[in-house]
Amino acid sequence: MSERVLMKGNEALAEAAVRAGCRYFFGYPITPQNEIPEYMSRRLPEVGGVYLQAESEVAAINMIFGGAGTGERVMTSSSSPGISLMSEGISYIAGAELPCVLMNIVRGGPGLGSILPAQSDYFQATRGGGHGDYRLLVLAPSTLQEGVDLTMLAFDLAEKYKNPVMILGDGFMGQMMEAVEFRTPEPMDLPDKRDWAVGYMERRGTRALVKSLYLDPEELERHNMKLQAKYREMEKNEVRYESYRTDDAEIVLAAYGTTARIARSAINELRREGLRVGMIRPISVYPFPYAPFENLPGSVKNVLVVEMSCGQMIDDVRIGVGRTVPVHFCGRVGGIAPSVDEIEARIREITGK
Amino acid sequence: MAEFFRSLLAAGFGGQGVLTLGQLVAYTAMYEGRHVTWIPSYGPEMRGGTANCSVMVSDEEIASPVVSRADYVVIMNQPSLAKFEPTVKPGGILLYNEDLVSYRNPRTDITVVAVPANALAMELGSEKVANVVVLGALVEAGDIVGADACLATIKDKLGKKKAQMMEMNITAFEKGREIVRKGISR
Fold it and tell me: In chain B, what residues touch A145 (CB-CB under 8 Å)?
């Protein structure tokens, strides 16, 4: 099907998951992502799948743990405080090297915060939240179409690396409507799940042992080294970003998700006036696209990071940029997105134009 | 090669159908082959307070979906007037529900259209169609979407579950257009 349909973000992400072969959803309601479980509760039975509302986020993520162990395509979604509750289980799943897809439709924090959009879970998504030396592969779509495409990709990447993949959205993305197309992705060459998943003992001749406990220190260290090698592979293969009008830029913005769309409007406005503004938009936030920031065009005199947070991705941008040019920040929180006007004003302030 | 770019902000009490009004515009724009975004307010203010939605329509891919200044603003209740009157772009159009909104000292740099939305809807049999009356006025006063295409959307989206409402909605839409055509409004 290549027809464009107008859909709410949450529903579009859910449908993309179903088309990617997701057949099991376990979750617990929280605004602003409730349309995902709502949609799944209706849609999964139609395709022979199972939707189950757990008694809590902790239960839901452990159901995901069990489901993922069978090698079937499983998914959960939540929003900020719910992801915090799931973090222990996410660490277990990463430790046990199981594939699953997690969606975080981020809302304002800390604590219960608010139900409005935010990007203040960047640290949690890219640096953990759960314990231990683990990494999620984290994809941050900017438009609903990209959300659909990345969700389909996420299931393949999860299986490829036997690792949880997170779709990092925000409340705007969940609630807004935009036309999307469900395009079938190129099939990916994936490892045979029967080699590791539970339920295939006869074929394999050995039991599948799903665990993250290694009491022997040497063994745990080896396990960690194996995980680290996998993360280095992700860093080599899965970096995704978009460069927008950076070639001759004097100032480069760094923004992801909905904020990148707002930044793009500001760039277009200022370009009409002749200001040389561009943007690097990370699409994968782990692995982070450090290279384009390490290799900024010589014309760039300043970098401006725009976020719906008090400044989280800015740490990664600083790692990339180093000390070559100043890195500035423009952010709003509490459920408020920086406006086109605010971003323009900040750019004028920095460039003096 | 004129670049088509229009923005709409519709605001009112939860239940007045402003989100639906915006969605009908969004669906129509998509059927007309344009890019479109629709964002609702979904904060706690929806309960008993105001609800609003922003719609962007363009020939090009839409960058920011957030509307801070709109070409068209639809005001269905009094609190929304104070909040969103300043967001109308100079030269833009503000349509308001004159049965529930008193608008003194209107801005002179914009076109102001008063629509007796509730009165007309009541004449047709249900206050529920007040939003469609205003939609008709919006479509007639501006060019965010075509009237015929919008009518087709109404038939497609509002007629399926409640067939008895269909006639009422179609008439409401035409009444809204008539208000603007006849220049009954200021």
Answer: none
Indicate yes or no: CB of B66 within 8 angstroms of CB of A337: yes
What number of CA atoms fall less than 13 Å from residue A65's CA on the CB side? 21
pLDDT at B45: 58
3-state secondary structure of A227: helix
Judge if ipTM > 0.90: yes
Domains of chain B as residue ranges with CATH? 5-181 (3.40.920.10)
Q: How many helices (H) and strands (E) does chain B have?
A: 6, 6
Q: How many CB pairs under 8 A join A and B?
A: 64
Residue B63 has its nearest CB partner, among A115, A176, A264, at A264
Place of tokens 């859910």: A14
Asked if A5-237 and A242-351 have one fold, the answer is: yes
| B30-41 pLDDT, tens digit each | 999 999 999 998
The residues pairing with A241 across neighbouring beta strands, listed in sequence order, are: A282
CB contact under 8 A, B66 and A32: no
Domain ranges of chain A: 5-237, 242-351
Q: How far is B145 from chain A (nearest CA, A)?
A: 16
Band of the pLDDT at B185, cuts 50, 70, 90?
A: very low
For domain A242-351, is the CATH number 1.10.150.240?
no
Class of domain A5-237: alpha beta
Of all residues in chain A, the one with the smallest CA distance to B44 is A115
